[in-house]
Amino acid sequence: MLEPIAIAALGKVITPILIPLATKAGQFLFEQTKPLMERLQDDRQCQGALLEYLKAKQIRDKELSSLSLTQQECAQELKKQELRDRRKLSALQRELMRELQAKEIEVKLTEIQTIWDKETWFSQLSRQETEQILLQQQQHLLVLVAPPEMSADCPASFRNNLKSELRNVGSFIGGHYSFNDEVYSIKFYGDYFQKPVSDIDIERLHRILSPIPTIVLYCDINDYTATFRAGIWGLGNRNVALFATQPWNWEKTYQSLLESGYTEVESLRFIRQLIVSIHQLLAAFWMDAYFLTIDSGYQPRLVKLKQEFADRGVAEEWIQPYIENLAKLQQQQLEREQQHIQNYRKITLQQEVLVVPKLRFFQTLQSLEDRDAILGIAFAPEGRLYAGSLQGGITLWNGLTGERLGYWQFQKAGIFAVAISPDFQVMAAARKNKTIDLIHLQTQQVIRILKGHTHELRSVAFSPDGKRLVSGSLDKTVKIWDVETGQAMATLREADSMILAVAFSPDGEVIAGGGRRKTIVLWNAKNGRVIRHLLGHDDYVRSLSFSPDGTRLASGSWDQTVKLWDISTGEEIATLKGHADAVVSVNFSPDGQILASGGKDSQVRLWNVATSEAHLTFNECTDTVAAVAFSADGLTLAVGCHDGKIQFWR
């Protein structure tokens, strides 16, 4: 055993030789597995499993976001379930890989005679053993170590011992990587090659064993240098990749050891041990890297072997670049999988069957006060529509007949938004004077006034159970109110931004808020914690609407666009362009297939959610379209305009 100072000195010499190999090797494996993964992703069975995984993940994400800091055990269990599901998905992908592999092996077995007879080199190999590898090693990663190519001038100590010592690579692998593991199985041969091999020989071998993922380690040693080499191919690789280190001047190391007081026998023995250890290091790295390319959840073993290598005289700085490259490879795999999941999610959204209603203009109703801007509208049962105006009045219309059923003005302060509870018992009216009226729709009486904001209200929304109300204000806060008591349950602050839009998710778990900071914030509705920020708009976010299934959020902005967001990931699904001015209002149809948007350009657009294309565009207003709303059956669209008109499209 060398002294630590001697090991450190050796590390400075050998580390620069080994680092480039680690960098090139990791990137090669990542790039080479891409075509195979794309083939798997087109498989229907894999797509079905991925869809099930996405559904389960969405449920878990919602549960995680609702947990408090004291519920760590539940959070850990959900994370474990996520890991189990990912491994289940990886297991299916590996099984599909093996099915592809089996077909390639079948073809190769029919070609083996022709390949074998073509070149005399194969006479050095065992034909029977090669066929057995093809027949039996489908489940394995094959690791082969060839005898070293040594010049006649090499020390006798090398020529007499090194070949047998390199077989210790097999015992090293067996001790740390299971030969019987069904998932990460390895088959090692230390005597498959009868003689040393060259790069050309490895390419020849690939012609026969290409269906079997294989690592071949070999080296060249002369009287003063040693070069370490590796040939590798994985599943689906059409070509073999050959890697080599820069020559290591072992003679200088030998002289350094002698000068440090070690005997000739000790010095040569230690150099042989280093050669074996470098083979073991390369084998460990390649095996870990290969398993990471087929399963991003795999835990590299090399990380736990640092001390064992140190005990054998291998400096930590030799190993660290390989560990770092494994971590990088794992991260790349995770990102690639995540990107695939997002791409698949977008594809499934685009493939949804869509039946688009043919809405036609029905009638126009005028507000009680001429040109009293309509800023908020909400449907009640039987086609009744409530409209709030800038002058502070609330008008009830029969949307089917055009009859005005009532008008109330409980306060003179302008109404910027209205919302009706899911049971149609209460309406909330957000006013310019910083208050919210809660109005009982049967008695047409204000049952309470919510006070607490310090600036004008701009948006209100009920929770699905009707027990909570969320409000957004120019005072830069979002408040959650108890509808029964009228008390503020929580005040949410995330940024120095006036809040222009709020929305409650259909399951009541998430609150969305947007405003002048161009950012959308998603909060956990139970504990008030920020879930994530949605970034992408270039101007104020003026309106928000959740899809009925809660998977998507639509946002309308002063940047003249509408964006669709994936709630579970925060990823932008699509940007809908077409408005010529700011988008002021967005609203999903009850079936989630249509999105309506209205803007300062006086236009109303109906978007096909699945394709992100505009289905209809109409322009009957002479001023800003401030509000759009669908009836409960989705057959009627109401449009509120700044010119005081309400339009109905059926």
TrEMBL record:
Coiled coil start-end: 75-113
Family matches, as SMART domains: WD40 (SM00320)
Matching Gene3D superfamilies: YVTN repeat-like/Quinoprotein amine dehydrogenase (2.130.10.10)
Protein name per Swiss-Prot or TrEMBL: Uncharacterized protein
Source organism phylogeny: Bacteria, Bacillati, Cyanobacteriota, Cyanophyceae, Desertifilales
InterPro entries, per database record: WD40/YVTN_repeat-like_dom_sf (IPR015943), WD40_PAC1 (IPR020472), WD40_repeat_CS (IPR019775), WD40_repeat_dom_sf (IPR036322), WD40_rpt (IPR001680)
Superkingdom per UniProt: Bacteria
Alphabetic keyword roster: Coiled coil, Repeat, WD repeat
SUPFAM superfamilies assigned: WD40 repeat-like (SSF50978)
WD repeat feature ranges: 450-491, 492-533, 534-575, 576-617, 618-650
